[in-house]
């Protein structure tokens, strides 16, 4: 055996399946995960927000923190921006390119906020009052300018629109307003830009959500045009829904645009990805990995983290999350697809399942350690981050502060 | 006051809202509800079936029993047929037109069964084996012949297809097989025929269902053509899903084709309609009643009951169900739509809600009693049925027997 | 007919069932509903709080507003206090008795807050650190003093304790800490005081809640002693749970202490009571009304509203809620219990169900109007409130302000 | 490195944690899992049962098949019997001891059936009719005799009792009947016998289940006495419920009596254990493994499989299930409890979680292979079973047949 027996054992196992470990490592090295600027700031629930020492409040701090995650993992070069929380003024916007460059990251998706201002009490794009809709549209158009200014080509919409009481508003009238408002924003997009349309089945509206499921998002995107695609947030489904099936369906329809990775046990809990059901997350990645190898499926998919891990430390939790995503992808790459296809063709349910289980049960940490080493990184990003002193520095320099954003 | 003070009070109230009680009565008199042949037969759960004396086993008996429901309610002239359970042989098929005529009913939707035979263990239209798919397609084509023979213009599909274990089969391969098989059936339909495509999010497949939600059914229908529409079964959604929102969306998209009315508390419980949440059922009818008055929404909607009320007597439970549906429609017709629109336009959530609540809280039984009297019916169909002696007759003549069908 | 034909019709119907309308009216007049001080203040979700003009911020204002609800409904004489939000200092506490008297109300339950302070990030009574537990216990003991000062004999606990991640803490260690801390508070209670122990199955902790269901609350109460009873909040159950069954069980065990009335569609949505499933609410009241007539069941039950109706106007929504509760109780009182018992004894499922449905379908608004008139109140409390000018006055005098409390 | 490098690597890792691999292996070797006789027979859903060639129909065949599972895994020496399905007559009962001995297994729990006969349409122990209750009690008393005859000391109750419609029966009356009937059975138990009381929150009753959750079972057991304990079936909870928390609570209360292992995605799907959320299953085993090391917690826990894996081959699916359970236990034994306790004490959520994740991510298959080898077994039980020829033999000798039991 070599000096890295665990890796060698894994390599031998993969070779026995006819899988190329070099190809697997290559795909792992080019994985690209976007972290959210708001994941570095304090967050909470309606019952309160627990502040962390060192939590970021300015966009410069958020980018610097995101830079740490990328520095230690090597696969998180992009940062999602939340226009309202990150850019209080024009100065902040001007500062972004330099701050991103300094942090070693670039800007990913631009996220409008059309839910927080008082006018949005009864909705934004779906509001019965044309003035409120105008405000939401104008903010979205402004976000297109922001995207241009920071060199982003993705605008990502989550609407909080919905109603709390039966009868409160007309479902159909709201649907028409939604289509009309988005059409105006869509028409203003530059040709290379992608519009992501998220859905969520409850909260903060509690009786109905205008974009409640993938079907609603797909209808809206089809209404708009080819640059609009569906975004799947893992925490936004009813209990019992099979998310990997939705992912496969959207892939087949050419309508999958991106993900918000996180996990939940019941509601939109915003727990760190894989924390509750890591097998489900692996099954989702299994669809994605398979689609990468299927020439008929050609989706540009943005992989984004969207978590408000309220009680874990911000940067360490983000590093843990990136590592969890890497592991799910690595396991999905270890699936013996030829054997899987053969078992399915034979109608052998147990054998087909066990192909997936075998890859899942594989401990891919030695593989990822080698990948990191080959990328010039520490094999244990979390430990390396803690050893770097960055956490102590921000805790002592920044301390506890009041920021902007969800629950803060 | 007149001799019918309760009705007079209601009439005065409606007049005060500017609603025409004559128009309301007219709409109630033309309501048309289809009852299912299998609702007159024994049914059960996987833990057993509790037999009823007098439960129907032949198609002639089922039609006769359905005729009773129509005779006492006046709004249930159509009967859904289940090809496998109702038509054991050609003779049975030949006998249907005369039996229906004798019972005073006509045949509504034709329901293929592609789930019960041993070949369908791993699916029907989605099965990996082309031979099994061929069997499913051929049965469906046969059902088109049946429809012709019994003068039906609706074929209604519920697929049990799905998988029980992660990895068992390819979501995307199954989707393609589904589209291909249905396209063949669709192509064989006569031009005036409607194809209904039901969805269900779990059971009897437990990991994934190929047609799991309205989005999947809509995609399939759009793939097929304008004669294919979505069927909404009230018991086939995940918990917390807003069904009336789905109904409104399908209406707006011109894709609503029909309903399976029933109710559930958790699973697909097949309880009698309105038994668990009658307000939700009213809210669904509110969308339907509003759509009838909206010239932009032109859907042909089939209203069907699909229940396996295992422990209630078959015919009385069906009469109760028809009455419950009538009441929901009647209440929806009592909604003051002008006031509702005004409250919504003013953004007055509470006032808008209370318009719906006011109609719901109205006791419409006096109105329905008058409608029935004007139709030459007994104002209390359930009591009249029990008084008719039919129940005793079938109990003594038919007794307990072994039939065909769900859980029997 | 008399000058009130709708009431006369109802009276005749009840008489035909052998029910005494005088007894029913008497029970409706002595109904006693507690409204929450926090229900008059701004509230919101983690995504933001929408401020209302005139929303109360001081305890004096909250009591004054609660006084309006009682003035117009006659059955809401008590107000729940939230110690942290209502009593910023000793002066506020001193002012309460006079303010309550001026408003025509009295103080009901005292609600400690052991979830909002930064120390409670990982729990309060269940926290691993004895210092934090001490703080929670001391606050609770202080609440007992508050109760004494405002002449309240109910302390009502809702714990936000729980964990967000598997492994975060030991379930069993937390259970022991919980029992120990509560025992200390319990021991300090005066003999006539009632301790209510609420449960909630998710939020703000997302992996596990220490008091997640009625079973956990019951175990804790039994551990403490006879003055501790279970509080049922209607929004705190998993989907599909049968709440009326829990209520009946707690009644039979002598362990039901009180309610938090509200409604939800999916999460703990805090919608106004009866807004989503009014039939379920009626079924709960049916158990309560039946228990009142059963001498073996002797529970002192506190009926409290706990809603954060974020987008409806505070006082009007509270009046609507009180009226909804009255209607549910009134319908439950119209149930023909003798006929129900006979149907059950005969094993006639449909007949038994229809006894409940018949009472539910009855329009009890004429009855409640008469009850109000006999109590010297306007028959339409909501309309009367709007006509009173109070809402305009507080909107113009108070305007939009920043308060304390949930999401504000 | 030795000739088994994967095992050596794991051994080194465990040693570094201060864990004794010999102790771990010892505990794995004494693991004892009971398989259900009905798991070797055909099963299905209400929509149909798909027959397998070779499925067992007689108790002798079931025991022989269970013997295979034990022969290849070494940890499944016990078989649960279902009185109604397994023992059609006295002869069958007489034959059991010899048949079990021949198969190399012994009888575990005795499972009465008080749900299948026509009399139980409205319940068994909770039925309003004393005659039906008498039948259920008598059958249960007979099951005690059966237990004696087959040398079993566990009787395990699952009740299907419940109602389908609001109002159908009195919750409280049913609770009293339940307590009374069980008290009679309990009183007849020999002193060393354990009574297990299962709960289930829905199906086959759809409105309410008399024993719907752990709280109801616990109340009944406490009412009966120390020989009655709660049985947790993993598929019998509402969505979002934290099962490991329930397990810990029951352990702490001394009320945990046993498990029915399986998995589900939405309903009581009876999928093979760990098929949907293996991490949840590991977390449950983590509580059990921790409790084994806690001298204050002294529960006798019966570990039983209860699955109706309809579409997987019976014996192979059972072997897979046993292996999955072994793996969960093995991973739970690899948890570094000292480090976990330290992280919890420090309030370090992430570190505590990662202790559990680390053990879960460990590939324990090499360890289990060594354990099996040391037990004289093939390291790959499933492969060895397929190689043994038993499956082909039963398929050709038994073929497709009609049996007794769930859905058959």
Task: Give the largest interface pair and sizes.
Answer: A-B, 58 and 58 residues
Can you summarize the main beta sheet of chain A? 8 strands, parallel
Write down the CATH class of chain A: Alpha Beta
Find the structural class of chain A using helix and strand composition.
Answer: alpha/beta
Descriptive report:
The structure is a homotetramer of 408-residue chains. Chain A is an alpha/beta fold and 408 residues long. Helix content of chain A is 48%, strand content 12%. Chain A has helices spanning 5-16, 21-29, 59-73, 83-86, 90-103, 130-150, 171-187, 214-224, 243-252, 278-292, 314-333, 337-345, 349-361, 365-374, 381-388, 390-398, and strands at residues 34-36, 44-45, 48-49, 78-82, 106-111, 154-157, 162-163, 194-198, 208-209, 228-233, 256-261, 302-305. Chain A has an eight-stranded parallel sheet. In chain A, helix 6 (130-150) links the parallel strand 5 and strand 6 (154-157). The radius of gyration of chain A is 22 Å and the shape is globular. The mean pLDDT of chain A is 96. At the A-B interface, helix 7, strand 9, helix 8, helix 9 and helix 10 of A face helix 7, strand 9, helix 8, helix 9 and helix 10 of B.
């Amino acid at each position: 055996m070599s000096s890295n027996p665990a890796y060698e054992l894994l390599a031998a196992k993969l070779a026995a399946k006819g899988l190329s470990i070099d190809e697997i490592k290559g795909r792992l090295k080019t994985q690209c995960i976007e972290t959210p600027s708001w994941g570095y700031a304090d967050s909470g629930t309606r019952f309160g927000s627990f502040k962390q020492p060192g939590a970021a409040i300015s966009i410069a701090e958020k980018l610097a923190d995101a830079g740490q995650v990328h520095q230690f993992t090597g696969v998180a070069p992009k940062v999602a921006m939340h226009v309202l929380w990150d850019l209080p003024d024009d100065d902040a916007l001007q500062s972004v390119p330099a701050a991103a460059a300094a942090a070693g990251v670039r800007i990913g998706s631009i996220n409008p906020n059309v839910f927080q201002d008082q006018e949005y009490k009864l909705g934004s794009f779906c509001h019965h009052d044309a003035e409120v809709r105008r405000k939401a549209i104008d903010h979205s158009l402004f976000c297109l300018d922001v995207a241009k200014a920071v060199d982003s080509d993705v605008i990502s919409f989550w609407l909080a629109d919905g109603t709390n009481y039966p009868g409160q508003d007309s479902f159909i009238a709201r649907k028409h307003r939604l289509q009309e408002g988005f059409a105006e924003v869509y028409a203003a997009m530059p040709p290379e830009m992608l519009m992501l349309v998220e859905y969520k089945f409850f909260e903060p509206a509690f009786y109905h959500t205008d974009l409640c499921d993938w079907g609603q998002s797909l209808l809206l995107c089809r209404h708009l045009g080819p640059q609009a695609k569906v975004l799947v947030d893992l925490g936004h489904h009813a209990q019992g829904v099979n998310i990997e099936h939705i992912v496969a369906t959207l892939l087949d329809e050419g309508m999958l645009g991106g993900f918000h990775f996180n996990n939940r046990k019941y509601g939109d809990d915003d727990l760190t990805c894989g924390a509750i059901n890591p097998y489900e997350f692996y099954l989702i990645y299994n669809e994605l990995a398979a689609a990468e190898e299927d020439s008929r499926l050609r989706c540009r998919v943005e992989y984004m983290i969207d978590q408000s891990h309220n009680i874990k430390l911000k940067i360490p939790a983000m590093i843990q999350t990136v590592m969890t995503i890497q592991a799910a992808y690595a396991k999905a790459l270890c699936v013996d697809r030829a054997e899987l296809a053969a078992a399915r063709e034979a109608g052998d349910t147990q054998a087909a399942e066990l192909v997936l289980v075998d890859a899942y049960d594989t401990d891919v940490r030695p593989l990822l350690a080698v990948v990191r080493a080959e990328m010039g990184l520490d094999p244990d990003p979390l430990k390396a981050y803690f050893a770097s002193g960055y956490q102590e520095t921000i805790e002592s320099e920044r301390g506890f502060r009041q920021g902007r954003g969800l629950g803060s």
